[in-house]
Amino acid sequence: MSTSSKTHRKLNVQSPVPADIDIANSVEPLHISEIAQDLNLDPKHYDLYGKYKAKVLLSVLDDLQGSEDGYYVVVGGITPTPLGEGKSTTTVGLCQALGSFLDKKVVTCVRQPSQGPTFGIKGGAAGGGYSQVIPMEEFNLHLTGDIHAVTAANNLLAAAIDTRIFHEASQSDKALLNRLCPPNKEGKPRLGEKIKKFSRLDIDPDSITWRRVMDVNDRFLRKITVGQGPEEKGMVRETGFDIAVASEIMAVLALTTSLADMRERLGNMVIGNNKAGEPITAEDLGVAGALTVLMKDAINPTLMQTLEGTPVFVHAGPFANIAHGNSSIVADKIALKLVGPGGFVVTEAGFGADIGVEKFMNIKCRYSGLKPQCAVIVATVRALKMHGGGPQVVAGKPLDRAYLTENVALVEAGCVNLARHISNTRAYGVNVVVAVNMFSTDTEAELNAVKSAALSAGAYDAVVCTHHAHGGRGAVDLGMAVQRACENVPQPFKFLYPLDISIKEKIGAIAKTYGASGVEYSEQAEKQIEMYTEQGFSNLPICMAKTQYSFSHDASLKGAPTGFVLPIRDVRASIGAGFIYPLVGTMSTMPGLPTRPCFFDIDLDTTTAN
Questions:
Q1: Which DSSP string do the residues of 66-120 spell out, in sequence order?
Q2: pLDDT level of residue 174 (50, 70, 90 thresholds)
Q3: In this predicted model, what pLDDT tens digit does every residue of 195-222 receive, in sequence order?
Q4: Cα–Cα nearest to 297, from 155, 143, 161, 156
Q5: Of 548, 74, 566, nearest to 352 (Cα)?
Q6: Residue 165 phi, psi (nearest 5)
Q7: What is the dihedral of CA 51, 132, 300, 36, to 10 degrees?
Q8: Is 55 within 8 Å of 300 (Cβ atoms)?
Q9: Angle ∠(188,194,199) on CA atoms, nearest 5
Q10: Between 474 and which of 97, 350, 466, 568 could a Cys-Cys bridge form, CB atoms 3.0 to 4.6 Å apart?
């Protein structure tokens, strides 16, 4: 389907490319109702949040139930440097090309960024250059309050856990019963035979995995002690804070398919075990309904726009290591109906394709029932040189001369990393298009080497892109390649593994795609696998938590390593979200602030309020 959109604007690009914030501020966003109208969204299906944001209501799916879906495209990347290779920028640039230059209906679907990185090391996540989501500051900060809702719900559950332990320890069965289950008008308890189980959960404090969260990087909250007040009667225990987007509730939000499904998933979240080793859920604590009330508005995706006026859904922001690192299922489902046949929905998967795309395929698509036609893998000459044996790339330090001068041999050596990502992704039955994100120091010979290696590895096409410098115009060739790839899918979509095999077999299937020769389990991991299997959770998909800087567990192993044994340190579960997550090494769920955080460069013009 093509569109003669009134909202698409042509950019007045400058060279050299100005700072992201200057570009974002140079464009006056359209009123969001204009973007909604261009998508044929009826005003009854969205609520305005100011002039430039709107919450799209799930009721739109009821009206569009019989409509056909558009094409579904996921954007991943090669194993990145610490500087990132431009996946978000490519996602936005591709959509600007499809909408503004190729006259296609298109929706970009991306995660909401956490304020932790925004004020910490990474900065914002709205794309960059002339391929951005605007308004930038609204995108990167509070947006429509979804992360704050996740924080409130998470911490309500945390409070409910400690409070329940406290009251069970200080009250008799009868007193607990009277307070938890007040009698009805006839004077009879409301819960019948469930009374005893409901009134005394007998939570084992040492088994509690649920932690409090906040959306700020604060290393000093990683390990804390609670219950030190005199009124808590010595009920002290060690716990800690995670960053809000690491909460299981965020993963639930991203994987839910309806309000009823979210209510069920929130109730199924396991917070620990009782002293008999049985799982205790949010439903057991009686708090699941309240959590759903706190999250009832957060389930609706937020509509925004790109610099060139194409629509964007911003929704959910789960971690890409201990969670699956993809935006929401409901946003994708709504978008696919709105663009219709011949239209495009482009969504981004976090980290390299070995993590983000693998989880998109095996977790997100499994729960959504959606099937992509094309995967875009973003590559840079810089990252491929690193994988070919180039010097270490360190954020905040100048690049070595090897990355600034031509070295075709180094690029060719590093293409083994790209080749493995292509091979792994093609195995799902989708066409792979490689987007070579061009930098000013890249030479034609180096770019040609990447394209040649990509095609030799089985990519459907490989295209050099300049969307950072030129906006949608710089990704037109990529847009045409993606269109052809979607129209010519050669085989049916398939998952990497079935759900009815064991936890270890599923982990082994994923480890094989990394190049591992085997998997090694710690005593703790073995114990957890046995427990989750006994509790009936072994049929869940696997969400590997490992470094994004290597196919392996060792971030220093670049390229496409083979023959290593993948060590599983621990195995944990997000039962409500619906996955088991093995820990490959140590994963930090609360980042710290650097010596000079990004907040040094953030201020307000008190005259203009910008």
A1: TSPP-EEEEEEESSPPTT---HHHHHHHHHHIIIIIS-B-EEEEEPPPPHHHHHS
A2: confident
A3: 556 679 999 999 999 999 999 999 999 9
A4: 143
A5: 548
A6: -60, -45
A7: 50
A8: yes
A9: 85
A10: 466
- Per the model's pLDDT, the better-predicted residue between 571 and 608 turns out to be 571
d(CA 400, CA 412): 18
Q: Which amino acid is present at 79?
A: T
Name residue 563's amino acid.
G
What is d(CA 539, CA 533) in angstroms, rounded to the nearest whole number? 8
Question: Over the stretch 506-559, which tens digit does the pLDDT of each residue have?
Answer: 999 999 999 999 999 999 999 999 999 999 999 999 999 999 999 999 999 999
d(CA 75, CA 95): 11
Reported confidence tier of residue 193, pLDDT bands at 50, 70, 90: very low
**Which residue is listed with tokens 């041999």?**
409
Alpha-carbon distance of 544 to 535, in angstroms, equals 20
21 vs 358: CA distance, rounded Å? 33
Q: In Å, how far are 178, 386, 390, 395 from 400, measured between CA atoms? A: 70, 10, 9, 12
Alpha-carbon gap, residue 93 to 308, rounded angstroms:
9
